[in-house]
Amino acid sequence: MKERDIQVMFGHRNKVAGIFELKLCKGKSLPFCSLAEHQERALLAASSTKGLYYKISDFPMFAANKMRYNRPKPFDCMYLVCQPAYVVVCFYEPRKKKRLYYIRIQDWIEMREKADRLSVTEKVALEYSESFEDYLISKEAE
User: Fold this and answer.
1) Are 18 and 83 within 8 A, CB to CB?
2) pLDDT digit string (tens) for 29-62?
3) N or C: fewer beta carbons within 10 Å in the chain?
4) Distance between CA 21 and CA 40 in Å, rounded?
5) CB neighbours (10 Å) of residue 65?
6) Which residues of 70-90 are buried (b: 16+ CB within 10 A; e: fewer)?
7) Number of other CB atoms surrounding residue 108 within 10 Å
8) pLDDT tens digits for 61-85?
């Protein structure tokens, strides 16, 4: 299981509106440093009145045959203001669980500042999360 696998499932199952940074934890805890500074700044900006402007990169093309590497982009850019912004942590154990915790960026920062350790456990993630989803139980049974 890799973060890109969680990304695919998240894209199909997520019902929460907002901006998300997904993190995958295959152990007992996720280091706070797994959220890079630029990601934290972007989530904070998008959730504030300051806002975040983001230009979607133009996809490169092969000059000779005009073939794209990826699908065409949906639009050129976006300006996000006062949007709910989350760090979504997936605690994963093979064949046992895929639990996702939606933690608002402001709560993530508070959690990190109050923590007596350098990582977040699943118990603490639950405490600070706004929403919780168990993919293995609730969706794979369907």
Assistant:
1) yes
2) 999 999 999 999 999 999 999 999 999 887 665 5
3) C
4) 9
5) 6
6) eeeeeeeeeebeebbbbbbbb
7) 24
8) 555 556 655 667 788 999 999 999 9
Asked if residue 73 lies in contact with residue 58, where contact means CB atoms within 8 angstroms, the answer is yes
Whether residue 85 contacts residue 51, with contact meaning beta carbons closer than 8 Å, is answered with: no
Domain boundaries, the chain: 3-138
Which stretches of 28-84 are assigned E, i.e. beta strand?
29-31, 52-55, 77-80
Q: How far apart are the first and last CA of the chain?
A: 21
What residue type is 89 in one-letter code?
V
Give dist(CA 17, CA 104) in Å, integer: 12
Query: How many whole angstroms separate alpha carbon 118 and alpha carbon 115?
Result: 7
Structure token digits, residue 132? 């919780």
The values of phi and psi at residue 117, to 5°, are: -145, 175
110: CB partners within 8 A, 6+ apart:
128
**Residue range 102-131: mean pLDDT, rounded:** 96
Give the ranges where the chain is alpha helix by DSSP (H).
3-13, 37-46, 105-114, 122-128, 135-138
